[in-house]
């Protein structure tokens, strides 16, 4: 837990404990309203009866969606504190102006939110979250490499910091290497919390273009990073893992390295490796050719991107992603594509696995993007 998180913001919401308390509070309110109806005189009965009905409706309307959300949260270990739910958690970041005007080298890396417009893609993205290492503040400012981290669905760009421990991993590395580490860039891949773009271009959202053109252009110019290519890597969790593999294989001049953490075999509209016909229809306008052009196994087998490398990691209790990791690693190996495969015993589809995967692969990613170590 972040040392700066105190008070009620730090209260954990593990499994069903938080929603249980929420439900009990709603029930107490409803009981008090009903008791008020029973004790009131006739002149007040009608209005209180209406209030009681509204109270019951309100409790049901709020508790049922909350229960569903916490059901997702229990599976992913997604929102861990009251602060995360309220939006007052430890990661709010500094402004772009403050980032650019800061002259003093901080002791640890800093988090900043950067709005990146969809100039080429016209994708209406949420602000990108960026972690900048202490070395970036040195003068003259060094050209640092970049690791792009993609969230899943449901999800937010800040997930990698709030729940995935990305800043902790990067700060630990920077502390051991004179403040030097890759810049972490965490862009939006879906536009909304529950959307599922699979990072492809569709008539409604050109997310692939956003991630491979708009994001690199703004980040490299604003932060003075190394140019996209060998010094840029892309990694992601769940949907973001599939996206990372697909994007690197389709755009090796932007990303030469990828990390696929608990992703499926490729773009899918559901939660399993099946459902290809629905995916072809829903994401690619019925074009099998377009689907194949975004299929990591097909792209790996072709091996048209010399020098690219990937890291596959999943939990053995997470059936479809684990199967996908085995399959894609085998295809990559046969095609002569450098790769690493890690299957975590007992690992599930949650942030314990996602954060471990980043921690496991981070030194390898750093080596691939060639961080200059003083």
TrEMBL record:
Keywords from the named record: Hydrolase, Membrane, Transmembrane, Transmembrane helix
Top-level taxon: Bacteria
Molecular function GO terms recorded: acyltransferase activity, transferring groups other than amino-acyl groups; hydrolase activity
Transmembrane segments: 16-38, 50-72
One Pfam entry name: Esterase
Xref: Gene3D superfamilies: alpha/beta hydrolase
Name used for this protein in its record: S-formylglutathione hydrolase FrmB
Organism: Pseudonocardia alni (Amycolata alni)
């Amino acid at each position: 837990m972040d040392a700066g998180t105190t008070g009620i913001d730090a209260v954990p919401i593990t499994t069903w404990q938080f929603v249980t308390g929420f439900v009990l509070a709603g029930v107490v309110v409803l009981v008090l309203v009903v008791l008020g109806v029973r004790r009131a005189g006739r002149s007040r009965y009608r209005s209180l009866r209406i209030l009681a009905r509204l109270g019951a409706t309100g409790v049901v309307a709020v508790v049922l969606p909350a229960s569903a959300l916490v059901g997702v949260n229990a599976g992913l270990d997604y929102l861990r504190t009251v602060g995360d739910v309220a939006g007052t958690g430890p990661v709010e970041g500094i402004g772009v102006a403050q980032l650019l005007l800061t002259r003093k080298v901080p002791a640890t890396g800093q988090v900043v939110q950067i709005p990146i417009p969809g100039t080429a893609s016209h994708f209406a993205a949420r602000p990108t979250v960026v972690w900048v290492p202490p070395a970036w503040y040195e003068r003259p400012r060094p050209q640092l490499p970049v690791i792009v981290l993609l969230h899943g669905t449901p999800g937010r760009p800040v997930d990698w910091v709030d729940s995935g421990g990305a800043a902790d991993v990067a700060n630990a590395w920077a502390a051991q290497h004179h403040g030097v580490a890759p810049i972490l860039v965490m862009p939006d891949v879906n536009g909304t919390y529950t959307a599922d773009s699979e990072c492809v271009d569709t008539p409604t959202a050109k997310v692939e273009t956003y991630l491979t053109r708009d994001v690199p252009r703004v980040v490299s110019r604003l932060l003075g990073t190394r140019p996209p290519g060998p010094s840029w890597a892309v990694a992601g969790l769940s949907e973001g893992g599939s996206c990372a593999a697909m994007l690197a294989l389709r755009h090796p001049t932007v990303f030469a390295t990828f990390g696929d953490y608990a992703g499926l075999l490729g773009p899918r509209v559901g939660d399993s490796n099946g459902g290809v016909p629905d995916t072809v229809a829903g994401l690619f306008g019925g074009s099998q050719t377009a689907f194949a052009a975004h299929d990591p196994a097909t792209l790996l087998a072709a091996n048209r991107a010399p020098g690219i490398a990937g890291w596959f990691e999943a939990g053995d209790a997470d059936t479809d992603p684990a199967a996908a990791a085995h399959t894609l690693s085998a295809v990559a190996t046969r095609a002569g594509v450098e790769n690493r495969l890690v299957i975590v015993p007992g690992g599930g589809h949650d942030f314990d696995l996602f954060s471990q995967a980043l921690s496991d692969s981070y030194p390898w990613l750093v080596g691939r993007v060639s961080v200059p170590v003083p």
